[in-house]
């Protein structure tokens, strides 16, 4: 799949950070997962060391090794966006410079957390990091985790910086369930946690929309909605997608504390929803190809996923 003309791609997987059974960084697993997401899943960008990548519990050295390995493996076929956010401006700028040296194509920079800086201080922090390298910056606004929101005024000021090129806006709509609705009103792309395990399904809805088939796009989006809600609510998304990847024999490994791995019951429910989503996507693809679709795709069990979503895409 050709890389998008945008600085951060069109479908960026918020890639998990694979660990081995002892909890150490699994570099070979990261390489294999990156290849799968790009070459088989259709993602044209990978976000490393974000929330889904367990950035609070990985060391600077691990973050660098991850960028180097993934950039070497798929850097010519996908954009590599490195999460470098921290609550320390000097540390964040240093992480940004190191990510650039390791082969990153862009940076994901979260608002500084815990200290609760003023908006003026937040703007200064983010501009300082953007000035530290020549890479494009995607701001990351997720006040539910950081305690610090970006106001509209601050965003407008930051948008004037030549290297600040986008925002992952989790204050309002920067979540998997809004990938297609945002695309329909002009969103440039999405950063998807669910893509770790269902990249072809995430890409499929956007592919259909971009091809002008809005009805198919809406059906694909609704088919994925129960899995999306189950992954993204009730536990951190990292826990859910690592459980699914492990169950499918793909690189993931355990989560690091303070997170806890999914139990058998949660994993079984997630696997059921994933199988349903895949079956419904296959049925939709057969419909698009004009093939026989006499056998309907299975529906998720009652209460297993998201509430039904009605309406089409404008």
Explain what the structure shows.
The protein is globular and about 55 Å long. With 314 residues, the chain is an alpha/beta fold. The chain is 46% helix and 10% strand. Helix 2 (60-74) runs parallel beside helix 3. The longest helix has 26 residues, at 264-289. A seven-stranded parallel beta sheet has the order 6-5-4-3-2-1-7. The model is unreliable at 301-314 (pLDDT under 50). The chain has eleven helices and seven strands.
Q: Strand pairing plus helix content: what structural class?
A: alpha/beta
Largest sheet report: 7 strands, parallel
Q: What series of H and E elements makes up the topology? A: EHEHEHEHEHHEHEHHHH
Residue stretches low in confidence (pLDDT < 50, at least 5 long) are 301-314
Strand content: 5-15%
Radius of gyration: 19 Å
Number of helices: 11
E-strand count: 7
Instruction: Give the overall silhouette.
Output: globular
Q: Enumerate the strands of the largest sheet in spatial order, edge to edge or round the barrel.
A: 6-5-4-3-2-1-7
**Mean pLDDT, all residues:** 90
Query: Residue share in helices?
Result: 40-55%
Termini Cα gap: 26 Å
Write the layout of secondary structure elements.
Layout: E1 11-14, H1 27-40, E2 45-48, H2 60-74, E3 79-83, H3 89-102, E4 106-110, H4 119-131, E5 137-141, H5 143-146, H6 152-159, E6 164-169, H7 179-184, E7 190-192, H8 195-210, H9 214-232, H10 237-247, H11 264-289
Parallel strand pairs: 1-2, 1-7, 2-3, 3-4, 4-5, 5-6
Helix pairs in contact: 1-2, 2-3, 3-4, 4-6, 8-9, 8-11, 9-11, 10-11
């Amino acid at each position: 799949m050709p890389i998008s003309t945008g600085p951060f791609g069109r479908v960026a997987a918020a890639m998990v950070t694979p660990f081995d059974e002892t909890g150490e960084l699994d570099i070979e697993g990261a390489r294999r997962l990156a290849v799968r997401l790009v070459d088989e899943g259709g993602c044209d960008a990978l976000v490393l060391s974000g929330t889904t990548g367990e950035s609070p519990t990985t060391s600077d050295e691990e973050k660098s090794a991850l960028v180097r390995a993934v950039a070497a493996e798929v850097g010519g076929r996908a954009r590599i966006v490195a999460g470098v956010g921290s609550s320390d401006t000097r540390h964040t700028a240093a992480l940004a410079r190191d990510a650039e040296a390791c082969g990153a194509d862009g940076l994901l920079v979260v608002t500084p957390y815990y200290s609760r800086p003023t908006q003026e201080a937040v703007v200064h922090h983010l501009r300082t990091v953007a000035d530290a390298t020549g890479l494009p910056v995607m701001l990351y606004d997720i006040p539910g985790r950081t305690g610090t929101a970006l106001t509209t005024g601050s965003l407008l000021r930051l948008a004037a910086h030549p290297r600040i090129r986008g925002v992952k806006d989790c204050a309002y709509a920067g979540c998997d369930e809004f990938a297609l609705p945002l695309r329909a009103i002009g969103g440039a792309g999405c950063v998807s946690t669910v893509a770790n395990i269902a990249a072809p399904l995430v890409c499929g809805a956007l592919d259909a929309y971009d091809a002008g088939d809005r009805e198919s796009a809406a059906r694909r989006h609704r088919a994925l909605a129960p899995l999306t809600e189950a992954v993204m609510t009730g536990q951190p998304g990292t826990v859910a997608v690592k459980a699914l990847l492990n169950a499918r024999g793909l690189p993931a490994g355990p989560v690091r504390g303070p997170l806890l791995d999914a139990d058998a019951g949660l994993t079984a429910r997630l696997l059921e929803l994933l199988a349903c989503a895949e079956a419904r996507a296959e049925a939709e693809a057969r419909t698009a190809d004009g093939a026989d679709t006499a056998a309907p795709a299975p529906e998720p069990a009652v209460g297993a996923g998201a509430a039904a979503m009605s309406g089409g895409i404008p």
